[in-house]
């Protein structure tokens, strides 16, 4: 049996960062070539700890940046004037790409993939649209869809 430091989560074996004992063939033929593990030598332990520290620092930076963007978006709203029928149904729809463009015009660059709109908006109204800037940071943007006169 050999000890391996897991670099990624492996089902039925362990989570990233754990040291597990596995058969030599499993480590040599699967875990190590797939980049899922390192042999648990002293140099690999130091290397892994350094990588993990760098990943934690970059994750902290990303969360801080997302928090700053969320603070800038707090209280913001976007208004769309669109053509609509008598019952409030739109001729067309408002999509996450439209919302992203409107935010960019206001000076907030937010990728359309981060805007969590389950399906395009097809009726008049006010909508709270979540924006997933980070796993822990999800501000809501108020989107007004009004009929054009």
Polypeptide structure, described:
This protein is an alpha+beta fold and 149 residues long. The chain is 34% helix and 28% strand. The protein has helices at 24-31, 42-73, 96-105, and strands spanning 2-6, 19-22, 37-39, 77-82, 89-94, 121-123, 125-130, 140-147. The strands form three sheets. It has a three-stranded antiparallel beta sheet. A three-stranded mixed beta sheet has the order 4-8-7, covered by helices on one side. It has a two-stranded antiparallel sheet with strand order 5-6.
Characteristic terms for this protein:
8 strands; 28% strand; 3 helices; Ribosomal Protein L9, domain 2; Ribosomal Protein L9, domain 1; 149 residues; three-stranded mixed beta sheet
SSE layout and pairing:
Layout: E1 2-6, E2 19-22, H1 24-31, E3 37-39, H2 42-73, E4 77-82, E5 89-94, H3 96-105, E6 121-123, E7 125-130, E8 140-147
Parallel strand pairs: 4-8
Antiparallel strand pairs: 1-2, 1-3, 5-6, 7-8
Kindly estimate the percentage of residues that lie in beta strands according to DSSP: 25-35%
The unreliable regions are none
In spatial order, strands of the major sheet run 2-1-3
Query: What is the radius of gyration?
Result: 24 Å
| Helix share bin | 25-40%
CATH superfamily of the largest domain: Ribosomal protein L9, C-terminal domain
Q: Could you give a short account of the major beta sheet? A: 3 strands, antiparallel
Query: How many beta-strand segments?
Result: 8
Instruction: Examine the coordinates and then state which fold CATH places here, giving the name of the CATH topology of the largest domain.
Output: Ribosomal Protein L9, domain 2
Query: Oligomeric state of the chains?
Result: single chain
CATH architecture of the largest domain, please?
Answer: Roll
| CATH class category label of the largest domain | Alpha Beta
């Amino acid at each position: 049996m050999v000890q391996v430091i897991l670099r990624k989560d492996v089902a039925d074996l362990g989570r990233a960062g754990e040291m597990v004992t596995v058969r030599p063939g499993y480590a040599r033929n699967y875990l190590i070539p797939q980049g899922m593990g390192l042999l648990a030598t002293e140099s690999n332990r130091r290397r892994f700890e350094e990588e993990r520290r760098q990943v934690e620092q970059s994750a902290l930076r990303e969360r801080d940046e997302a928090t700053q963007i969320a603070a800038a978006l707090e209280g913001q709203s976007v208004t769309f004037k669109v053509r609509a029928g008598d019952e409030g149904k739109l001729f067309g729809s408002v999509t996450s790409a439209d919302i992203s463009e409107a935010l960019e015009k206001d000076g907030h660059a937010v990728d359309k993939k981060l805007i969590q709109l389950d399906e395009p908006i097809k009726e008049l109204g006010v909508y709270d649209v979540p924006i997933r800037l980070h796993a822990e940071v999800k501000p809501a943007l108020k989107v007004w869809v009004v009929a054009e006169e």
